[in-house]
Amino acid sequence: QVQLAESGGGLVQAGGSLRLSCTSSGMIFSIYAMGWYRQAPEKQRELVATISNGGSTNYADSVKGRFTISRDNAKNTVYLQMNSLKPEDTAVYYCNRYRSNYWGQGTQVTVSS
Hints:
This protein is an all-beta fold. About 0% of the residues lie in helices and about 50% in strands.
């Protein structure tokens, strides 16, 4: 079955950086678009970034210029490089096979001011 596993979250000061990873199994990773979402406490889950199977990317306005999504098909992994982090980036970050019901378990990102 399809499995997605995120890693790389943690506690960081404002202005710092983190790189999230999401490794997949049980599917042909290279043919699917992938996405990163986040959910802050008492807020709805929101789309952060997507990457197509061809490498085209899209970002939420709130993270443009700070976050970069990328993929390594040989490693079945999608990444989210997060720079210039802000306290409002604090959330649980989820990996998703885009527009599917396949989700990872999430990884907590906390940005202190």
